[in-house]
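Record 1 of the preview.
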Amino acid sequence: MPSPPPDRLVALLDAVLADERPRLGDMAAGAHLSAFHLSHQLSAATGEPPVALRRRVLLERAAWHLQRGARVTDVALAAGYDSVDGFARAFGRAFGHPPSQLPPAVERGHWLPAPNGIHFHGPSVLYVDAGEAREHPAGDVLEMLVRHDVDDVRALLRASRLLGPQALDAVRMPGHRVTDWHGPEETLRAVLTHLALGVEPWLAVLEGATSPPEPGDVSVADLLERHEELSPRWLAWVRDVQRRSAWGDAVVDALCDPPESFRLGQVASHALTFSTQRRHVARWMLGRAGVTDLPDPDPILWHRCAGHDDPRGLHR
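->
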């Protein structure tokens, strides 16, 4: 299979925002372009010149760190300013008040107005707004699918708790893989692990956290506990993006090697697609292990049993 083409937006942003490239010529060298071509390409793609984009994003990063207790001196130096006074003046012009008066994150975000929606989102993530007018979708189909997925994974994990290592680790589908990069998923334990923790790497990207460690041979009880911790965060993220109609926005994932950009709609579609596939495989494996008392995978039946059905809607 041929390698995917390099993500040009990521390459340009990396050249502009790298800590060791404060000057336009240095940025251009990092992108293997002339200063003219770097300015032309980035301005065409984002509507913002490289130097202005770098200055704004670094000020957003400074605000992010200030809201989390960093010292003004430290963030000023990290943002490339020779003095705290120079940083304070630039910060005041951008945010309308000095760094010492920046409201907490719960009252005011760290983003500045931008023509392209490219913003600092966390220590390793850039958030890229698609910058398009969108209509709000009718209904809550996506949230219904996500909630059903969360509940169904929980049911499969609970049904697996009484199985011993022999049943969990028996090779039931030799050579089975869901994706090339996740490796073989030949046992029930492997499938359940990916089901329970599938959104954990995405949440690390979206929340600006470090890459989660490899889970290893974790117990079903531990998988269930971690699923219960991850699920509210995943649902909260889906609801927030849905509320803002922001599925066309993107994140630049610095945890990838090389970094790669993803649309938020791609993230949700990816997670749901492969979770659905694994849930069906887990049901088949559980049946081979003798576990047959499982809820029906149909989201219609789940919706009815959960007490969400509206007789004026579905049955009308």
